[in-house]
Amino acid sequence: MSDYRIETKCIQSGWQPENGGPRMLPIYQSTTFKYDTSEHMGKLFDLEEEGYFYTRLQNPTNDAVAAKIADLEGGVAAMLTSSGQAANFYAVFNICEAGEHVICASSIYGGTFNLLGVTMKKLGIECTFVDVDAPEEELAKAFRPNTRAVLAESIANPALVILDIEKMARLAHSHGVPLIVDNTFATPVNCRPFEWGADIVTHSTTKYMDGHAMQVGGAIVDSGNFDWEAYGEKFHGLTTPDESYHGIIYTKKFGKKAYITKATSQLMRDLGSIPSPMNCFLLNVGLETLPLRMERHCYNAQKVAEFLNSHEKVASVNYAGLPGDKYHELAKKYMPKGTCGVISFELKGGREPAVRFMDSLRLASIVTHVADAKTCVLHPASHTHRQLTDRQLEEAGISPGMIRLSVGIENIDDILQDLEQALSQA
Ligand code: PLP
After folding, report:
1. Cα(153)–Cα(156) distance, rounded to whole angstroms?
2. Ligand 1 center to residue 113 CA distance, Å?
3. pTM
4. Which of 62, 259, 413, 423 has its CA 20 to 30 A from that of 252?
């Protein structure tokens, strides 16, 4: 981890050129890497020596970007995946197997809700969804002897619930399990979950980290702080020999990097889902300007939230930057520089005016995307969360008329003009 500030890390961390080497991160678009002796290659397979041999496991372009993201979060190691979905799946599956249990925030992104509530259930992993705003005594009831992790988003998509990270970390740790925080919306520029006790951070790098809608990707970062050996029976995959890897004990051989090494050498080996080197290159370009973009996203979103909040056709606005917002104080504590550019709001009259408003927008586009340089809009009940029942929508903090507006980095006056003219037609 370097001592530079985050703006500098976004530019300087990761790729370190040698004397005479390319200053820009090169794209190692190669599946394989050549060795002079078969013995050397054998040592790589045994994890006895470090080196590249097959891109599904490691690639220099991907590794440089993973190292940058680990540095931005203040972690010890990171693994990149081909999507945010894969990142959340691997983050949980790396420490949880059939017959075990996880606890997840009910306000989580719809894709993660499905992953845990439906798909992982078929693998024999049960999930209890909880309201993270509930008091600690209430939340403690969700833990079981076979619970292996707690998962929540630092800023929930799209409900914009701000997570009380210290509270959730305390709860998870007092039950001997790690807290996994999906930090996609806040990004490490605005929130550093490890500094508040989180153990693992995940990202959909598809969002602000990329920032230009160029690639789908994910990341898992390990703080290196969770003591797996203290709860060795629960996390036996990390603390007992891995027969599929010559009897290696990850915690013994890799110490603080045990969790990421296991995820790479076991899950990536068996399940795939690596990002392409080209996509990692694009992600790296996006990361260089992340702090500049986040500053502008937050500035623009604040102005938009204030505008909507005082508009006669708007019933309610969720944005933690507004002093009256339920999460204003938590946001000031965990995200003092601002939260993100995403706002959710509801028009008077619910679903129908919402659809008319969206169809009237000219600058903002209707896309299944969020957290991007371009202003965009989506109706969660008919798009990302359409698989949820009304009850599940309610638990996820989504009303049928809720509009999710992702404020971009265009000129604020143009954004406000577009919203004004669309509201006049809603
Ligand atoms: N986590 C959050 C908070 C998200 O918003 C998303 C997607 O919107 C994901 C994870 C899934 O990421 P991806 O679309 O890159 O698979």
Report:
1. 5
2. 11
3. 0.96
4. 62
Which residues, in sequence order, are CB contacts of 41 under 8 Å at separation 6+? 35, 53
Of 414, 77, 412, the residue nearest 222 (C-alpha): 77
- Ranges of the chain with pLDDT below 50: none
The answer, yes or no, to whether any atom of ligand 1 lies below 6 A from the CB of 367, is no
Distance of CA 386 to CAs 159, 160, 276, 335, 389, Å?
15, 18, 30, 30, 8
pLDDT digits (tens, 9 = 90+) for 335-350: 999 999 999 999 998 8
Three-class SS of residue 333? helix
Report the 10 Å Cβ neighbour count for 48: 11
- Ligand 1 centroid to Cα of residue 311, in Å, is 31
User: Is the minimum distance from the CB of 107 to ligand 1 under 6 angstroms?
Assistant: no
Please, what is the Cα angle at 109 between 411 and 311, to 5 degrees?
Answer: 40
Cα 84 to averaged position of ligand 1 atoms, centre (Å): 5
- As beta bridge partners, residue 376 has 365, 406
In the CATH scheme, what is the homologous superfamily, with its name and number, of domain 290-423?
A: Aspartate Aminotransferase, domain 1 (3.90.1150.10)
Distance CA 285, CA 13 (A): 12
How far, in Å, from the CA of 21 to the mean position of ligand 1? 35
Q: Which CATH class is domain 6-285?
A: alpha beta
Give the start-to-end residue ranges of the domains of the chain: 6-285, 290-423
pLDDT, tens digit, 9 for 90 and up, residues 93-108:
999 999 999 999 999 9
